[in-house]
Recover the amino acids of this structure.
């Protein structure tokens, strides 16, 4: 993150807005992406993330706002004049050219000398581990190989910013997981700034230094994966990233550095971490979020001061390493709980069993 | 029951297959028997068209030394090649506009105008073009006479529609992000079109050109209207000589034309399939 402090960000957006007719696709987005970052735009389909990426590439022009690349205003610069390269979701490899010619295309447009082109293309083929396949046509490659050609083609010009539009979406799940590590290694090796669009929160969490969560053309939150997961800026973010249980209640007061929240239907108040927030919430309405893996599940009443709830297991989803339980509480409310399947009392808990849920004080977070 | 049913079924399948085959045979005969008859008669030795006088290539020899037909054939080829090329350029531009320029104002009108010559009777098109050429000649002095130029313009007008249809279909299937990728990698729009779009369109461009070429080579009706003295295309020449009485020479010429057109259509079809 050293790049953040050192001068101009690689990419800066100021109030970028895009209208398609009367529809606002992107609505006043401000962003600063530092050099060397792996930045993700995360959101459901139709949230404007792809349009935002296309505006960075110069394939769409913003209706309002400014786009600065490396400190230079490039709002009106067309795609062919920008020091950014994009990897398309469909890969957009030129089917009538060999792999080498595909990768060399950008360098040829810049009038790079033949010998240098040959050298840089060979280096790229080595980087993406496709040595020996340079003469093939894209149609003769597997999906994973095509994906790497597309990546090589947008890296070879060493752009200021590399734009990736759902780079892993077309791969099957196993290959996608392997390719995630590949992508991290490559980004590390080339040291370029990456901006990725994805709808897959796991992918964004794995790869990114920072994530911007988008919905309806707006950015809801920007932050490191851990911050977004643990301290979501709102209910939408918490809902989109991972699974969450929400409890609405009234702030009853402060206790041991925590906020005590009385929730209707729960015998004991829930204690929420304060996260250094000041000000008095007492008496006001509060929404709490508890991640399913932070709730402890047991057959016997747990010891300690945790808020303890009782309920019945309504459904069990077995995932191998862990299971997810839907527990119905006495008041009719249901809570999702995730528990590991090994070395744990919960391992054999079945549908219909009566269980105890313990929510430790630090597990509950106040959702703004 | 099952055995009898099976036997019955097999017999029925056999019968229906026979029925289908004869239907198919009838269909093909209906389409191609007349042409076959023409081709066979072109090798007739006799001067009389309907009396078989033995096998001979005599009339091909006569045809090869007949300046009337040779001049007409040469003019027809020139008109066909020139108008096909013009139609290719115009039709491709129309297709690009329709597929790539989004929902521009007047797009539907433009689409309807492009499709109009497809359904308009040739007589009307021919007459309309004639009136326009006459009016143009009187007001601006061009074209001063009707002939090669007016033929090319008329045929290009009709054929560009067909080119536009063929090219548009291919362009519509093409991933637009290919051009975007080329521009993203530093190619200006015109260069991206030349380096990426054109090579990928090539099969349908060739198909469109061949289609336009054969359409022009075939045309009698429009050519009758827009041509002038001294510029007689092959189909017109054939038509007028048939009215004087059919000479076996025409059969020979007809056979050659059928072969040229068939090869053209076949090539166009193969090219369209090649990339699909």
């Amino acid at each position: 993150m050293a790049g953040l402090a050192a001068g101009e960000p690689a990419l800066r957006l100021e109030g970028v807005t895009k209208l398609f007719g009367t529809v606002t696709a992107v609505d006043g987005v401000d962003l600063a992406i530092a050099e060397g970052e792996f930045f993700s735009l995360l959101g459901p389909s139709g949230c404007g993330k792809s349009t935002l990426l296309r505006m960075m590439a110069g394939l769409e022009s913003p209706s309002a706002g400014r786009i600065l690349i490396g400190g230079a205003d490039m709002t009106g610069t067309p795609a062919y004049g920008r020091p950014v390269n994009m990897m398309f979701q469909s890969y957009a490899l030129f089917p009538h050219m060999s792999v080498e010619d595909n990768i060399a295309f950008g360098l040829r447009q810049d009038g790079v000398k033949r010998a240098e082109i040959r050298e840089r293309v060979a280096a790229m083929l080595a980087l993406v581990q496709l040595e020996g396949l340079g003469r093939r046509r894209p149609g003769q490659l597997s999906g994973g190989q095509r994906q790497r050609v597309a990546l090589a083609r947008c890296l070879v010009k060493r752009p200021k910013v590399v734009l990736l539009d759902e780079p892993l979406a077309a791969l099957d799940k196993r290959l996608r997981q392997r390719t995630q590590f590949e992508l991290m290694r490559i980004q590390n090796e080339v040291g370029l700034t990456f901006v990725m669009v994805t709808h897959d929160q796991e992918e964004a969490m794995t790869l990114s230094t920072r994530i911007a969560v988008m919905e309806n053309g707006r950015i809801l939150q920007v932050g490191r994966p851990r911050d977004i997961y643990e301290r979501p800026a709102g209910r939408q973010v918490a809902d989109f990233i991972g699974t969450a249980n929400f409890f609405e209640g009234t702030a009853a007061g402060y206790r041991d550095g925590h906020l005590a929240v009385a929730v209707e239907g729960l015998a004991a108040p829930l204690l929420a971490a304060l996260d250094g927030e000041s000000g008095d919430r007492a008496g006001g309405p509060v929404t709490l979020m508890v991640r399913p893996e932070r709730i402890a599940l047991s057959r016997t009443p747990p010891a300690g001061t945790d808020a303890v709830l009782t309920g019945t297991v309504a459904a069990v989803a077995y995932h191998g390493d862990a299971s997810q339980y839907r527990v119905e509480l006495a008041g009719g409310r249901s809570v999702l709980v995730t528990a590991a399947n090994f070395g744990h009392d919960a391992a054999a808990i079945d549908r219909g069993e009566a269980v105890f849920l313990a929510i430790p004080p630090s597990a509950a977070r106040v959702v703004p | 029951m099952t055995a009898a049913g099976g036997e019955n079924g097999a017999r029925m399948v056999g019968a229906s297959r026979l029925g289908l085959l004869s239907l198919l045979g009838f269909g093909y005969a209906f389409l191609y028997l007349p042409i076959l008859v023409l081709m066979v008669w072109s090798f007739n030795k006799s001067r009389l068209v309907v009396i078989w006088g033995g096998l001979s290539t005599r009339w091909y020899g006569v045809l090869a030394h007949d300046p009337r037909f040779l001049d007409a054939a040469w003019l027809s080829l020139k008109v066909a090649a020139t108008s096909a090329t013009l139609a290719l350029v115009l039709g491709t531009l129309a297709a690009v506009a329709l597929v790539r320029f989004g929902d521009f104002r007047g797009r539907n009108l433009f689409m309807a105008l492009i499709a109009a010559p497809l359904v308009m009777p040739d007589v009307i098109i021919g007459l309309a073009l004639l009136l326009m050429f006459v009016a143009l000649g009187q007001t601006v002095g061009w074209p001063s006479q009707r002939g090669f130029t007016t033929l090319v313009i008329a045929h290009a007008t009709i054929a560009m529609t067909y080119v536009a249809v063929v090219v548009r279909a291919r362009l519509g299937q093409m991933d637009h992000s290919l051009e975007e990728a080329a521009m993203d990698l530093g190619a200006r729009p015109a260069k991206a079109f030349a380096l990426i779009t054109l090579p990928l369109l090539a099969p349908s461009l060739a198909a469109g050109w061949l289609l336009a070429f054969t359409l022009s080579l075939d045309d009698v009706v429009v050519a009758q209207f827009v041509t002038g003295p001294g510029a007689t295309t092959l189909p017109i020449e054939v038509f007028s000589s048939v009215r004087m009485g059919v000479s076996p020479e025409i059969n020979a010429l007809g056979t050659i034309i059928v072969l040229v057109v068939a090869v053209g259509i076949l090539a166009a079809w193969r090219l369209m399939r090649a990339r699909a």
Notes: Chain B touches chain A at residues 175, 177-178, 180-189, 191, 195-196, 199-200 (CB under 8 Å). The first helix of chain B runs from residue 2 to 42. Chain B has two domains: 1-42, 58-275. Residues 1-5 of chain B have pLDDT under 50 and may be disordered.
